[in-house]
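Review box. Two proteins, two foldings.
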Amino acid sequence: MHAADSGRGAPGPLPPGALTVVPVTGVGEVRPDDDLAALLADALSTPGTDGRPVPWVADGDVLVVTQKVVSKAEGRIVPIDPDDPDAKRALVESESTRVLRRRGDLLITQTRHGFVCANAGVDLSNVEAGTAALLPVDPDKSARRIREGLGRRLGVDLAVVISDTFGRTWRNGVTDVAIGIAGIAGVVDLRGTPDATGRVLEATEVCVVDEVAGAAELVMGKDRSVPAAVVRGVDPSWLRRGSVAAEVVRDPGGDLFR
Protein backbone atom coordinates (compact mmCIF):
# COMPACT_ATOMS: atom_id res chain seq x y z
CA MET A 1 0.00 0.00 0.00
CA HIS A 2 1.33 3.41 -0.94
CA ALA A 3 0.41 6.51 1.10
CA ALA A 4 0.64 9.76 -0.83
CA ASP A 5 1.38 13.02 0.95
CA SER A 6 -1.34 15.21 -0.51
CA GLY A 7 -4.67 15.10 -2.24
CA ARG A 8 -3.44 17.71 -4.75
CA GLY A 9 -2.10 15.42 -7.43
CA ALA A 10 -3.11 12.18 -9.12
CA PRO A 11 -1.25 9.07 -7.99
CA GLY A 12 0.90 7.42 -10.65
CA PRO A 13 0.37 3.94 -12.09
CA LEU A 14 0.28 1.16 -9.52
CA PRO A 15 1.75 -2.34 -9.70
CA PRO A 16 -0.88 -5.10 -9.73
CA GLY A 17 -2.57 -5.50 -6.36
CA ALA A 18 -1.22 -2.24 -4.89
CA LEU A 19 -3.30 0.45 -3.22
CA THR A 20 -2.70 4.17 -2.94
CA VAL A 21 -4.24 6.10 -0.04
CA VAL A 22 -4.35 9.89 -0.45
CA PRO A 23 -5.45 12.35 2.27
CA VAL A 24 -8.00 14.91 1.12
CA THR A 25 -7.11 18.39 2.38
CA GLY A 26 -8.68 21.80 2.04
CA VAL A 27 -12.22 20.91 3.09
CA GLY A 28 -12.25 23.42 5.95
CA GLU A 29 -14.62 23.54 8.90
CA VAL A 30 -17.95 21.83 8.21
CA ARG A 31 -21.08 23.30 9.75
CA PRO A 32 -24.74 22.28 9.94
CA ASP A 33 -26.58 22.49 6.59
CA ASP A 34 -23.32 22.71 4.61
CA ASP A 35 -23.40 20.91 1.27
CA LEU A 36 -20.78 18.31 2.13
CA ALA A 37 -20.67 16.87 -1.39
CA ALA A 38 -19.89 20.33 -2.77
CA LEU A 39 -17.11 20.89 -0.22
CA LEU A 40 -15.60 17.51 -1.01
CA ALA A 41 -15.91 18.06 -4.76
CA ASP A 42 -13.88 21.27 -4.44
CA ALA A 43 -11.22 19.44 -2.43
CA LEU A 44 -11.10 16.63 -4.99
CA SER A 45 -10.37 19.02 -7.87
CA THR A 46 -7.44 21.15 -9.02
CA PRO A 47 -7.52 24.17 -11.36
CA GLY A 48 -7.12 23.22 -15.02
CA THR A 49 -5.21 25.20 -17.62
CA ASP A 50 -8.37 27.17 -18.37
CA GLY A 51 -8.97 27.84 -14.68
CA ARG A 52 -11.87 25.40 -14.43
CA PRO A 53 -11.67 22.69 -11.74
CA VAL A 54 -10.50 19.27 -12.89
CA PRO A 55 -11.10 16.26 -10.63
CA TRP A 56 -7.99 14.34 -9.62
CA VAL A 57 -10.06 11.29 -8.66
CA ALA A 58 -11.05 8.60 -11.14
CA ASP A 59 -13.77 6.03 -11.70
CA GLY A 60 -13.33 3.17 -9.24
CA ASP A 61 -11.71 5.25 -6.50
CA VAL A 62 -13.16 4.93 -3.00
CA LEU A 63 -13.70 8.09 -0.96
CA VAL A 64 -13.63 7.51 2.80
CA VAL A 65 -15.27 10.32 4.81
CA THR A 66 -15.20 10.59 8.59
CA GLN A 67 -18.47 10.34 10.45
CA LYS A 68 -17.73 13.58 12.27
CA VAL A 69 -18.02 15.84 9.21
CA VAL A 70 -21.10 13.96 8.01
CA SER A 71 -22.75 14.46 11.41
CA LYS A 72 -21.81 18.14 11.40
CA ALA A 73 -23.27 18.73 7.93
CA GLU A 74 -26.45 16.89 8.87
CA GLY A 75 -26.92 18.90 12.06
CA ARG A 76 -26.30 15.95 14.38
CA ILE A 77 -24.59 18.23 16.90
CA VAL A 78 -26.26 18.79 20.26
CA PRO A 79 -25.43 20.94 23.29
CA ILE A 80 -24.05 19.18 26.36
CA ASP A 81 -22.28 20.11 29.56
CA PRO A 82 -18.98 18.18 29.35
CA ASP A 83 -18.58 18.42 33.13
CA ASP A 84 -21.93 16.78 33.82
CA PRO A 85 -21.55 12.97 33.59
CA ASP A 86 -25.28 12.50 34.15
CA ALA A 87 -26.06 14.61 31.09
CA LYS A 88 -23.72 12.58 28.91
CA ARG A 89 -25.08 9.32 30.28
CA ALA A 90 -28.65 10.42 29.52
CA LEU A 91 -27.65 11.43 25.99
CA VAL A 92 -25.95 8.08 25.39
CA GLU A 93 -28.98 6.19 26.65
CA SER A 94 -31.28 8.25 24.42
CA GLU A 95 -29.19 7.18 21.41
CA SER A 96 -29.26 3.51 22.42
CA THR A 97 -31.74 0.69 22.07
CA ARG A 98 -30.12 -1.15 24.95
CA VAL A 99 -27.14 -0.99 27.28
CA LEU A 100 -24.97 -4.10 27.29
CA ARG A 101 -22.35 -3.11 29.89
CA ARG A 102 -21.55 -0.25 32.25
CA ARG A 103 -18.23 0.63 33.84
CA GLY A 104 -18.00 4.07 35.40
CA ASP A 105 -18.71 6.66 32.70
CA LEU A 106 -18.29 4.07 29.93
CA LEU A 107 -21.34 2.37 28.48
CA ILE A 108 -21.28 -0.30 25.80
CA THR A 109 -24.56 0.05 23.96
CA GLN A 110 -26.43 -1.01 20.88
CA THR A 111 -27.55 1.86 18.69
CA ARG A 112 -30.66 2.08 16.53
CA HIS A 113 -28.44 1.15 13.59
CA GLY A 114 -27.50 -2.14 15.27
CA PHE A 115 -23.94 -1.03 16.08
CA VAL A 116 -22.49 -2.24 19.37
CA CYS A 117 -20.01 0.42 20.48
CA ALA A 118 -18.87 2.65 23.30
CA ASN A 119 -21.31 5.35 24.40
CA ALA A 120 -23.59 4.91 21.36
CA GLY A 121 -21.06 6.77 19.21
CA VAL A 122 -21.63 10.02 21.14
CA ASP A 123 -18.39 11.96 20.71
CA LEU A 124 -17.11 15.18 22.30
CA SER A 125 -13.83 15.31 20.35
CA ASN A 126 -13.23 17.60 17.37
CA VAL A 127 -16.42 19.56 18.00
CA GLU A 128 -16.98 22.94 19.66
CA ALA A 129 -16.79 22.97 23.45
CA GLY A 130 -20.17 22.36 25.01
CA THR A 131 -21.41 20.19 22.15
CA ALA A 132 -21.40 16.52 21.20
CA ALA A 133 -21.64 14.78 17.84
CA LEU A 134 -24.18 12.02 17.31
CA LEU A 135 -24.05 9.34 14.64
CA PRO A 136 -25.91 10.05 11.38
CA VAL A 137 -29.51 8.82 11.45
CA ASP A 138 -28.99 6.60 8.38
CA PRO A 139 -25.29 6.33 7.46
CA ASP A 140 -25.92 4.24 4.31
CA LYS A 141 -28.33 6.92 3.07
CA SER A 142 -25.77 9.61 3.92
CA ALA A 143 -23.15 7.76 1.86
CA ARG A 144 -25.53 7.47 -1.09
CA ARG A 145 -26.30 11.18 -0.92
CA ILE A 146 -22.61 12.12 -0.94
CA ARG A 147 -21.88 9.71 -3.80
CA GLU A 148 -24.71 11.08 -5.92
CA GLY A 149 -23.65 14.67 -5.24
CA LEU A 150 -20.05 13.96 -6.19
CA GLY A 151 -21.16 12.16 -9.34
CA ARG A 152 -23.15 15.19 -10.48
CA ARG A 153 -20.37 17.65 -9.74
CA LEU A 154 -17.32 15.69 -10.85
CA GLY A 155 -18.68 13.29 -13.46
CA VAL A 156 -16.73 10.51 -11.75
CA ASP A 157 -18.09 7.21 -10.44
CA LEU A 158 -16.75 7.00 -6.88
CA ALA A 159 -17.64 4.63 -4.08
CA VAL A 160 -18.17 6.26 -0.68
CA VAL A 161 -17.44 4.91 2.79
CA ILE A 162 -18.39 6.76 5.97
CA SER A 163 -15.97 5.73 8.73
CA ASP A 164 -15.98 5.96 12.50
CA THR A 165 -13.66 4.84 15.28
CA PHE A 166 -14.60 1.68 17.15
CA GLY A 167 -12.93 -0.47 19.75
CA ARG A 168 -12.74 -4.24 19.31
CA THR A 169 -13.83 -6.86 21.80
CA TRP A 170 -10.83 -8.58 23.42
CA ARG A 171 -8.31 -6.30 21.66
CA ASN A 172 -6.71 -3.08 22.89
CA GLY A 173 -6.74 0.08 20.82
CA VAL A 174 -9.21 1.50 18.32
CA THR A 175 -9.47 1.43 14.56
CA ASP A 176 -11.76 2.92 11.95
CA VAL A 177 -14.62 0.87 10.53
CA ALA A 178 -17.35 1.57 8.01
CA ILE A 179 -20.74 2.69 9.32
CA GLY A 180 -22.24 3.64 5.94
CA ILE A 181 -21.37 2.80 2.33
CA ALA A 182 -22.47 3.40 -1.23
CA GLY A 183 -21.12 1.86 -4.42
CA ILE A 184 -18.97 -0.76 -2.69
CA ALA A 185 -19.65 -4.17 -1.20
CA GLY A 186 -19.74 -4.41 2.56
CA VAL A 187 -18.71 -8.04 2.74
CA VAL A 188 -17.08 -10.16 0.05
CA ASP A 189 -18.06 -13.82 0.32
CA LEU A 190 -15.16 -16.11 -0.59
CA ARG A 191 -16.86 -19.33 0.47
CA GLY A 192 -16.62 -21.95 -2.24
CA THR A 193 -13.57 -20.35 -3.87
CA PRO A 194 -10.06 -21.84 -3.77
CA ASP A 195 -7.27 -20.40 -1.62
CA ALA A 196 -3.68 -20.02 -2.86
CA THR A 197 -3.08 -23.76 -2.45
CA GLY A 198 -6.29 -24.78 -4.21
CA ARG A 199 -8.16 -25.71 -1.04
CA VAL A 200 -11.81 -24.61 -1.09
CA LEU A 201 -12.64 -21.93 1.47
CA GLU A 202 -15.59 -22.88 3.65
CA ALA A 203 -16.15 -19.97 6.05
CA THR A 204 -14.28 -16.92 4.72
CA GLU A 205 -16.30 -13.72 4.41
CA VAL A 206 -14.20 -10.56 4.32
CA CYS A 207 -15.52 -7.21 5.56
CA VAL A 208 -13.66 -5.26 2.90
CA VAL A 209 -15.20 -1.89 3.82
CA ASP A 210 -13.78 -2.07 7.33
CA GLU A 211 -10.37 -2.80 5.81
CA VAL A 212 -10.72 0.17 3.46
CA ALA A 213 -11.79 2.43 6.36
CA GLY A 214 -8.82 1.30 8.46
CA ALA A 215 -6.40 1.93 5.59
CA ALA A 216 -7.79 5.42 5.04
CA GLU A 217 -7.44 6.31 8.72
CA LEU A 218 -3.69 5.82 8.47
CA VAL A 219 -3.44 9.03 6.44
CA MET A 220 -6.32 10.91 8.09
CA GLY A 221 -5.27 10.42 11.71
CA LYS A 222 -7.15 11.61 14.77
CA ASP A 223 -5.58 15.05 15.15
CA ARG A 224 -4.75 16.29 11.64
CA SER A 225 -8.05 17.88 10.56
CA VAL A 226 -8.11 15.61 7.51
CA PRO A 227 -11.77 14.55 7.08
CA ALA A 228 -11.45 12.28 4.05
CA ALA A 229 -9.11 10.09 2.04
CA VAL A 230 -9.15 8.48 -1.39
CA VAL A 231 -8.29 4.79 -1.68
CA ARG A 232 -7.29 3.81 -5.21
CA GLY A 233 -6.75 0.29 -6.53
CA VAL A 234 -9.48 -1.74 -4.83
CA ASP A 235 -10.68 -4.85 -6.62
CA PRO A 236 -13.26 -3.71 -9.23
CA SER A 237 -15.45 -6.68 -8.31
CA TRP A 238 -16.11 -5.00 -4.97
CA LEU A 239 -17.72 -1.99 -6.64
CA ARG A 240 -21.42 -2.68 -6.45
CA ARG A 241 -24.40 -1.57 -4.46
CA GLY A 242 -23.62 -2.08 -0.79
CA SER A 243 -25.03 -1.49 2.68
CA VAL A 244 -23.52 -1.68 6.14
CA ALA A 245 -26.96 -2.23 7.66
CA ALA A 246 -27.75 -5.15 5.35
CA GLU A 247 -24.31 -6.78 5.08
CA VAL A 248 -22.08 -5.89 8.00
CA VAL A 249 -24.31 -5.64 11.08
CA ARG A 250 -24.61 -9.17 12.45
CA ASP A 251 -28.11 -10.53 12.91
CA PRO A 252 -28.77 -11.26 16.62
CA GLY A 253 -29.62 -14.84 15.68
CA GLY A 254 -26.03 -15.38 14.59
CA ASP A 255 -24.46 -13.70 17.60
CA LEU A 256 -23.03 -15.99 20.28
CA PHE A 257 -22.47 -13.25 22.88
CA ARG A 258 -25.71 -11.24 23.11
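Next protein.
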Amino acid sequence: MHTISPIARTVAVVVAALLLAGIAGCGTEAGGSGDEIIYITDAPIGQNKFLQLGKTGTEQAARTLGATARTYESTDEQSRRSNLDAAVQRHPTAVVLITYEFNDLVSEFADRYPDQQFVLVDACPNKIPANLRCGTFKEYEPSYLLGVEAGLLDRSGHIGTVAARDSAFFHRWSDAFALGARSVNPRVTDTQLFVGGDNAVGDPARSKELALTAVQSGVDQIYGVTGGGNGGVFEAAAQSRVLAYGVDVDQCPEQPGVVVDNAIKRVDKVILDLLTQIHQGEPGGSSTAFGLAEDGSTITSLTSEAAASGCAILQYPDVLAQVRKARADIIAGRIAIPHADK
Protein backbone atom coordinates (compact mmCIF):
# COMPACT_ATOMS: atom_id res chain seq x y z
CA MET A 1 0.00 0.00 0.00
CA HIS A 2 1.26 3.47 -0.95
CA THR A 3 1.67 5.80 2.04
CA ILE A 4 1.64 9.63 2.01
CA SER A 5 4.28 11.45 3.99
CA PRO A 6 3.15 14.02 6.59
CA ILE A 7 4.69 16.84 4.51
CA ALA A 8 2.86 15.76 1.37
CA ARG A 9 -0.39 15.45 3.30
CA THR A 10 0.01 19.00 4.67
CA VAL A 11 0.72 20.41 1.20
CA ALA A 12 -2.36 18.68 -0.20
CA VAL A 13 -4.60 20.11 2.53
CA VAL A 14 -3.26 23.65 1.98
CA VAL A 15 -3.71 23.44 -1.82
CA ALA A 16 -7.26 22.16 -1.43
CA ALA A 17 -8.11 24.96 0.97
CA LEU A 18 -6.68 27.58 -1.39
CA LEU A 19 -8.65 26.18 -4.31
CA LEU A 20 -11.88 26.26 -2.34
CA ALA A 21 -11.18 29.81 -1.20
CA GLY A 22 -10.49 30.84 -4.77
CA ILE A 23 -13.74 29.32 -5.99
CA ALA A 24 -15.71 31.06 -3.22
CA GLY A 25 -14.02 34.36 -4.00
CA CYS A 26 -14.87 34.16 -7.69
CA GLY A 27 -18.48 33.43 -6.87
CA THR A 28 -18.73 36.46 -4.62
CA GLU A 29 -17.27 38.77 -7.26
CA ALA A 30 -18.98 37.40 -10.34
CA GLY A 31 -22.56 37.12 -9.28
CA GLY A 32 -25.06 37.83 -6.54
CA SER A 33 -27.59 35.50 -5.01
CA GLY A 34 -30.48 36.77 -7.10
CA ASP A 35 -32.07 38.22 -3.95
CA GLU A 36 -29.93 41.33 -4.06
CA ILE A 37 -30.86 44.93 -4.86
CA ILE A 38 -28.10 47.30 -5.99
CA TYR A 39 -28.39 51.06 -5.55
CA ILE A 40 -26.19 53.28 -7.74
CA THR A 41 -25.82 57.00 -7.09
CA ASP A 42 -24.97 59.63 -9.68
CA ALA A 43 -22.45 61.27 -7.30
CA PRO A 44 -20.73 60.59 -3.97
CA ILE A 45 -23.24 60.45 -1.12
CA GLY A 46 -21.14 62.52 1.30
CA GLN A 47 -23.44 65.06 2.94
CA ASN A 48 -26.07 64.74 0.18
CA LYS A 49 -29.16 63.80 2.19
CA PHE A 50 -31.17 63.13 -0.98
CA LEU A 51 -28.75 60.43 -2.14
CA GLN A 52 -28.49 59.12 1.42
CA LEU A 53 -32.28 58.76 1.54
CA GLY A 54 -32.07 56.67 -1.63
CA LYS A 55 -29.55 54.39 0.05
CA THR A 56 -31.62 54.10 3.22
CA GLY A 57 -34.79 53.54 1.21
CA THR A 58 -33.18 50.79 -0.84
CA GLU A 59 -31.91 49.05 2.29
CA GLN A 60 -35.32 49.28 3.97
CA ALA A 61 -37.09 48.00 0.86
CA ALA A 62 -34.64 45.11 0.56
CA ARG A 63 -35.34 44.04 4.15
CA THR A 64 -39.09 44.29 3.56
CA LEU A 65 -38.84 42.14 0.42
CA GLY A 66 -36.42 39.60 1.91
CA ALA A 67 -33.40 40.70 -0.11
CA THR A 68 -30.00 42.22 0.62
CA ALA A 69 -28.82 45.66 -0.52
CA ARG A 70 -25.56 46.92 -1.95
CA THR A 71 -24.57 50.52 -2.82
CA TYR A 72 -22.22 51.73 -5.56
CA GLU A 73 -21.31 55.43 -5.39
CA SER A 74 -20.41 57.20 -8.64
CA THR A 75 -18.32 60.29 -9.23
CA ASP A 76 -18.82 61.00 -12.95
CA GLU A 77 -20.29 59.49 -16.11
CA GLN A 78 -17.46 57.00 -16.53
CA SER A 79 -17.91 55.66 -13.00
CA ARG A 80 -21.69 55.50 -13.48
CA ARG A 81 -21.13 53.28 -16.50
CA SER A 82 -18.57 51.16 -14.65
CA ASN A 83 -20.92 50.75 -11.71
CA LEU A 84 -23.74 49.69 -14.00
CA ASP A 85 -21.45 47.17 -15.68
CA ALA A 86 -20.47 45.74 -12.30
CA ALA A 87 -24.06 45.67 -11.08
CA VAL A 88 -25.57 43.75 -13.99
CA GLN A 89 -22.81 41.14 -13.75
CA ARG A 90 -24.15 40.25 -10.29
CA HIS A 91 -27.63 39.52 -11.74
CA PRO A 92 -29.50 41.25 -8.90
CA THR A 93 -33.26 41.32 -8.50
CA ALA A 94 -33.16 45.01 -9.43
CA VAL A 95 -30.78 47.90 -10.02
CA VAL A 96 -31.97 51.18 -8.49
CA LEU A 97 -30.68 54.42 -10.05
CA ILE A 98 -31.33 58.00 -9.05
CA THR A 99 -31.51 61.36 -10.91
CA TYR A 100 -31.60 62.41 -14.55
CA GLU A 101 -27.88 61.64 -14.95
CA PHE A 102 -28.94 58.04 -15.66
CA ASN A 103 -31.56 58.80 -18.33
CA ASP A 104 -29.38 57.77 -21.28
CA LEU A 105 -27.42 55.05 -19.50
CA VAL A 106 -30.47 53.23 -18.17
CA SER A 107 -31.98 53.10 -21.66
CA GLU A 108 -28.77 51.66 -23.04
CA PHE A 109 -28.34 49.04 -20.32
CA ALA A 110 -32.03 48.09 -20.20
CA ASP A 111 -31.92 47.35 -23.93
CA ARG A 112 -28.65 45.42 -23.61
CA TYR A 113 -29.83 43.36 -20.63
CA PRO A 114 -33.57 42.73 -21.20
CA ASP A 115 -33.78 40.19 -18.36
CA GLN A 116 -32.44 42.66 -15.77
CA GLN A 117 -34.96 44.84 -13.93
CA PHE A 118 -34.18 48.54 -13.41
CA VAL A 119 -35.71 51.31 -11.30
CA LEU A 120 -35.00 55.00 -11.95
CA VAL A 121 -35.98 57.58 -9.32
CA ASP A 122 -36.55 61.29 -9.95
CA ALA A 123 -36.20 61.00 -13.74
CA CYS A 124 -37.31 58.98 -16.74
CA PRO A 125 -36.21 58.67 -20.39
CA ASN A 126 -38.71 59.55 -23.12
CA LYS A 127 -38.88 55.94 -24.28
CA ILE A 128 -39.30 53.54 -21.37
CA PRO A 129 -37.97 49.97 -21.88
CA ALA A 130 -40.16 47.12 -20.66
CA ASN A 131 -37.71 46.25 -17.88
CA LEU A 132 -37.61 49.79 -16.45
CA ARG A 133 -39.90 51.41 -13.89
CA CYS A 134 -39.60 55.14 -13.24
CA GLY A 135 -40.72 57.12 -10.23
CA THR A 136 -40.95 60.89 -10.65
CA PHE A 137 -42.32 63.59 -8.38
CA LYS A 138 -44.91 66.34 -8.66
CA GLU A 139 -42.52 68.97 -7.31
CA TYR A 140 -44.99 71.72 -8.10
CA GLU A 141 -47.52 70.49 -5.52
CA PRO A 142 -45.44 70.88 -2.32
CA SER A 143 -43.79 73.98 -3.83
CA TYR A 144 -47.24 75.55 -4.17
CA LEU A 145 -47.90 74.81 -0.49
CA LEU A 146 -44.63 76.48 0.48
CA GLY A 147 -45.76 79.46 -1.57
CA VAL A 148 -49.00 79.59 0.42
CA GLU A 149 -46.89 79.79 3.56
CA ALA A 150 -44.74 82.55 2.07
CA GLY A 151 -47.78 84.54 0.97
CA LEU A 152 -49.32 84.36 4.42
CA LEU A 153 -46.04 85.19 6.19
CA ASP A 154 -45.33 88.05 3.79
CA ARG A 155 -43.73 91.22 5.15
CA SER A 156 -42.28 93.03 2.13
CA GLY A 157 -44.49 91.75 -0.67
CA HIS A 158 -41.41 90.39 -2.45
CA ILE A 159 -40.41 86.70 -2.47
CA GLY A 160 -37.74 84.94 -4.50
CA THR A 161 -36.23 81.65 -5.61
CA VAL A 162 -32.60 80.70 -6.16
CA ALA A 163 -32.70 77.60 -8.38
CA ALA A 164 -29.98 75.53 -10.02
CA ARG A 165 -30.89 76.05 -13.67
CA ASP A 166 -33.25 78.15 -15.77
CA SER A 167 -34.99 75.06 -17.19
CA ALA A 168 -38.49 73.61 -17.31
CA PHE A 169 -37.52 71.09 -14.62
CA PHE A 170 -36.56 73.72 -12.04
CA HIS A 171 -39.46 76.00 -12.94
CA ARG A 172 -41.70 73.24 -11.57
CA TRP A 173 -40.49 74.48 -8.17
CA SER A 174 -39.97 78.20 -8.67
CA ASP A 175 -43.14 78.99 -10.65
CA ALA A 176 -45.35 76.94 -8.32
CA PHE A 177 -43.87 78.71 -5.29
CA ALA A 178 -44.84 82.08 -6.76
CA LEU A 179 -48.33 80.85 -7.72
CA GLY A 180 -48.96 79.56 -4.22
CA ALA A 181 -47.94 82.86 -2.68
CA ARG A 182 -50.18 84.86 -5.02
CA SER A 183 -53.12 82.55 -4.35
CA VAL A 184 -53.35 84.00 -0.83
CA ASN A 185 -51.65 87.36 -1.41
CA PRO A 186 -52.11 88.72 -4.96
CA ARG A 187 -49.80 91.69 -4.36
CA VAL A 188 -46.70 89.48 -3.99
CA THR A 189 -43.94 90.02 -6.54
CA ASP A 190 -41.42 87.33 -7.44
CA THR A 191 -37.71 87.24 -8.33
CA GLN A 192 -36.07 84.10 -9.74
CA LEU A 193 -32.29 83.71 -10.01
CA PHE A 194 -30.39 80.70 -11.38
CA VAL A 195 -26.96 79.30 -10.52
CA GLY A 196 -26.10 77.72 -13.90
CA GLY A 197 -22.63 76.49 -14.80
CA ASP A 198 -21.15 73.01 -14.54
CA ASN A 199 -21.96 72.60 -10.85
CA ALA A 200 -25.43 74.12 -10.69
CA VAL A 201 -26.70 71.76 -7.99
CA GLY A 202 -23.64 71.81 -5.77
CA ASP A 203 -22.27 75.34 -5.57
CA PRO A 204 -23.05 76.87 -2.16
CA ALA A 205 -20.81 79.91 -2.77
CA ARG A 206 -22.63 80.91 -5.94
CA SER A 207 -25.99 80.08 -4.37
CA LYS A 208 -25.21 82.35 -1.42
CA GLU A 209 -24.10 85.15 -3.73
CA LEU A 210 -27.40 84.99 -5.64
CA ALA A 211 -29.43 84.82 -2.43
CA LEU A 212 -27.71 87.99 -1.17
CA THR A 213 -28.47 89.64 -4.52
CA ALA A 214 -32.13 88.71 -4.11
CA VAL A 215 -32.18 90.17 -0.59
CA GLN A 216 -30.65 93.40 -1.85
CA SER A 217 -33.51 93.67 -4.36
CA GLY A 218 -36.05 93.50 -1.52
CA VAL A 219 -36.74 89.76 -1.21
CA ASP A 220 -37.33 88.66 2.37
CA GLN A 221 -38.30 85.03 1.76
CA ILE A 222 -36.10 82.81 -0.42
CA TYR A 223 -36.83 79.36 -1.79
CA GLY A 224 -33.59 77.41 -2.27
CA VAL A 225 -33.73 74.86 -5.09
CA THR A 226 -30.02 74.27 -5.58
CA GLY A 227 -29.42 70.79 -4.15
CA GLY A 228 -26.10 70.81 -2.33
CA GLY A 229 -25.92 74.58 -2.77
CA ASN A 230 -28.83 75.25 -0.42
CA GLY A 231 -26.47 75.67 2.50
CA GLY A 232 -25.30 78.88 0.84
CA VAL A 233 -28.89 80.08 0.48
CA PHE A 234 -29.54 79.43 4.17
CA GLU A 235 -26.33 81.19 5.21
CA ALA A 236 -27.37 84.26 3.23
CA ALA A 237 -30.85 84.17 4.75
CA ALA A 238 -29.49 83.90 8.30
CA GLN A 239 -26.96 86.66 7.67
CA SER A 240 -29.65 88.93 6.23
CA ARG A 241 -32.32 87.96 8.76
CA VAL A 242 -34.80 86.78 6.16
CA LEU A 243 -36.66 83.48 5.84
CA ALA A 244 -35.80 80.53 3.62
CA TYR A 245 -37.36 77.31 2.30
CA GLY A 246 -35.65 74.02 1.45
CA VAL A 247 -36.17 71.00 -0.79
CA ASP A 248 -35.97 67.21 -0.98
CA VAL A 249 -35.36 66.49 2.73
CA ASP A 250 -35.89 68.25 6.05
CA GLN A 251 -33.37 71.11 5.95
CA CYS A 252 -34.80 73.06 8.90
CA PRO A 253 -32.06 71.84 11.28
CA GLU A 254 -29.43 73.49 9.07
CA GLN A 255 -30.63 76.96 10.13
CA PRO A 256 -33.25 76.69 12.92
CA GLY A 257 -35.61 79.62 12.97
CA VAL A 258 -34.55 80.61 9.45
CA VAL A 259 -35.77 77.69 7.34
CA VAL A 260 -39.58 77.82 7.35
CA ASP A 261 -40.41 74.48 5.69
CA ASN A 262 -39.32 72.11 2.92
CA ALA A 263 -40.74 70.47 -0.19
CA ILE A 264 -40.11 66.79 0.50
CA LYS A 265 -39.53 63.95 -1.94
CA ARG A 266 -40.40 60.60 -0.35
CA VAL A 267 -37.64 58.74 -2.16
CA ASP A 268 -37.89 55.83 0.28
CA LYS A 269 -41.59 55.31 -0.43
CA VAL A 270 -41.10 55.51 -4.19
CA ILE A 271 -38.30 52.94 -4.14
CA LEU A 272 -40.38 50.54 -2.03
CA ASP A 273 -43.43 50.94 -4.28
CA LEU A 274 -41.47 50.30 -7.48
CA LEU A 275 -39.48 47.37 -6.07
CA THR A 276 -42.72 45.85 -4.77
CA GLN A 277 -44.06 45.96 -8.34
CA ILE A 278 -41.04 43.93 -9.44
CA HIS A 279 -41.41 41.55 -6.50
CA GLN A 280 -45.05 40.94 -7.41
CA GLY A 281 -44.26 40.39 -11.08
CA GLU A 282 -46.18 43.41 -12.35
CA PRO A 283 -45.26 44.61 -15.86
CA GLY A 284 -42.71 47.38 -16.29
CA GLY A 285 -42.20 49.94 -19.01
CA SER A 286 -43.99 52.52 -16.89
CA SER A 287 -43.53 55.84 -15.11
CA THR A 288 -45.46 56.87 -11.99
CA ALA A 289 -45.64 60.46 -10.76
CA PHE A 290 -45.82 60.76 -6.98
CA GLY A 291 -47.54 63.79 -5.52
CA LEU A 292 -49.57 64.74 -2.47
CA ALA A 293 -52.28 62.16 -3.11
CA GLU A 294 -49.73 59.37 -3.45
CA ASP A 295 -47.80 60.59 -0.36
CA GLY A 296 -44.68 60.70 -2.52
CA SER A 297 -44.37 64.49 -2.34
CA THR A 298 -45.23 66.57 0.72
CA ILE A 299 -43.88 69.28 3.01
CA THR A 300 -42.10 68.73 6.32
CA SER A 301 -44.82 70.41 8.39
CA LEU A 302 -47.40 67.86 7.19
CA THR A 303 -45.34 64.79 8.10
CA SER A 304 -45.36 62.77 11.31
CA GLU A 305 -41.83 64.09 12.02
CA ALA A 306 -42.91 67.75 11.91
CA ALA A 307 -42.82 68.34 15.66
CA ALA A 308 -39.14 67.39 15.88
CA SER A 309 -38.09 69.25 12.74
CA GLY A 310 -37.57 72.70 14.19
CA CYS A 311 -39.19 74.28 11.13
CA ALA A 312 -40.17 77.91 11.72
CA ILE A 313 -43.67 77.36 10.29
CA LEU A 314 -44.64 75.42 13.42
CA GLN A 315 -44.90 78.77 15.21
CA TYR A 316 -47.85 79.69 12.95
CA PRO A 317 -50.70 77.19 13.44
CA ASP A 318 -53.17 79.51 11.69
CA VAL A 319 -51.00 79.44 8.57
CA LEU A 320 -50.72 75.66 8.73
CA ALA A 321 -54.50 75.38 8.86
CA GLN A 322 -54.74 77.17 5.50
CA VAL A 323 -51.91 75.02 4.11
CA ARG A 324 -53.80 71.86 5.05
CA LYS A 325 -56.88 73.20 3.28
CA ALA A 326 -54.83 73.95 0.15
CA ARG A 327 -53.39 70.42 0.28
CA ALA A 328 -56.90 68.94 0.44
CA ASP A 329 -58.01 71.14 -2.47
CA ILE A 330 -55.06 70.00 -4.61
CA ILE A 331 -55.75 66.33 -3.91
CA ALA A 332 -59.46 66.81 -4.66
CA GLY A 333 -58.67 68.58 -7.93
CA ARG A 334 -60.12 71.89 -6.83
CA ILE A 335 -56.72 73.53 -7.32
CA ALA A 336 -54.89 72.82 -10.59
CA ILE A 337 -51.27 73.91 -10.71
CA PRO A 338 -49.85 74.70 -14.18
CA HIS A 339 -46.48 73.05 -14.68
CA ALA A 340 -44.00 72.19 -17.37
CA ASP A 341 -43.19 68.59 -18.24
CA LYS A 342 -39.75 67.38 -17.20
